Amino acid sequence: MAGRHTTPTHSYGYEFAFTGLMTCVDCGCAVVAEIKKGKYVYYHCTGHADKGRGGYANCRRKYVREEVLDEKFAALLDRLHFDEEVLEWVRDALKASHADERREQEQAIRRCQTEHKRLEDRLQAMYLDKLDGRIDNAFYDRMSAQWRVEQSRLLREIERMARLKNHTWKTAFGSWNSRAKRASCSSSSLRMRKSGF
């Protein structure tokens, strides 16, 4: 079962943007998404208000397109306003979070580098064993091919993590801050209620 704050993913791998954020106004059940005609995303109430003891609620028949929800959520977010104290708190939180993330990335890179060197050392030792006649050519070819594939995977992972290290907390905060500055009303006055559910 997915955690409360994770984005649910269906078996076909599609992440629905608003799943888990809304409940039905009529019956209080979860609002879920599904794909129609292979490309249109619709949201609807599960209609299980009676916990499965006699059918579905009528609100289950109401559908809303994801584009409509996009517009409504965007309008609500555009109305948010953050004072300097909140912006400072977000800046500090992003900075601390980025420092933790960077430390984890550096540790992961070191682990990959250590594993890559270990495989290289094994390849060298195995080559000497082959030259000394301790192992045959077929074993050497099979194992060296496996280890070279693993080394290539490790190098790709190191490169990927090195690119992630270049993403700084300042970039993340700048993106968040530019959206926040466009806001025009106090966040305390925001109440999210979905019409039609």
UniProtKB/TrEMBL annotation:
What InterPro entries does its record include? Zn_ribbon_recom_dom
Q: What are the residue boundaries of the Recombinase zinc beta ribbon domain, all occurrences included? A: 18-75
Going by the entry's taxonomy, the superkingdom of the source organism is recorded as: Bacteria
Alphabetically ordered keywords of this record: Coiled coil
Q: Which residues form a coiled coil?
A: 102-129
Spell out the protein name for this chain: Recombinase zinc beta ribbon domain-containing protein
